[in-house]
Write a structure and sequence with these properties.
By secondary structure, the chain is mostly helical. It has helices at residues 4-7, 11-22, 28-35, 39-51, 70-102, and strands spanning 55-60, 63-68. It has a single domain (4-102), classed as Winged helix-like DNA-binding domain superfamily/Winged helix DNA-binding domain (Arc Repressor Mutant, subunit A). A two-stranded antiparallel sheet has the order 1-2. The chain starts with a helix and ends with a helix.
Length: 103
């Protein structure tokens, strides 16, 4: 499995993820049309996103449909929530301690 952090480092892949967030179950052709990408370019980006478990793939006949893996996306959001929550708590403690020293 690839790293979701590496997969997110590319602007085009982030744009694809935002599209998949809005339009569930979309074909590579629809993605290519939406962004004016070539199909090979879309395929490479979808492969990287799939290996990073950021998207899921469903086969329907000859078509492959892609959607955002909301579990992995939620885990990434939780990481940032935890990180910033710590920073905000630290800032609050700093301000409160500084205020106490003045009193």
């Amino acid at each position: 499995m690839g790293s979701p952090w590496k997969a997110l480092s590319d602007d085009n892949r982030r744009r694809i993820l935002l599209l998949l967030k809005e339009k569930d179950m979309i074909t590579p052709t629809d993605i290519a049309d939406h962004f004016d990408f070539t199909l090979p370019g879309v395929s490479i980006n979808l492969r990287i996103l799939k290996e990073a478990d950021l998207i899921t793939e469903k086969k329907e006949g000859k078509n492959r449909l892609y959607s955002l893996n909301r579990k992995t996306a939620s885990d990434l959001v939780q990481f940032f929530d935890d990180m910033y929550d710590y920073k905000l708590k630290s800032l609050k403690e700093y301000v409160e301690n500084k205020k106490r020293k003045r009193e």
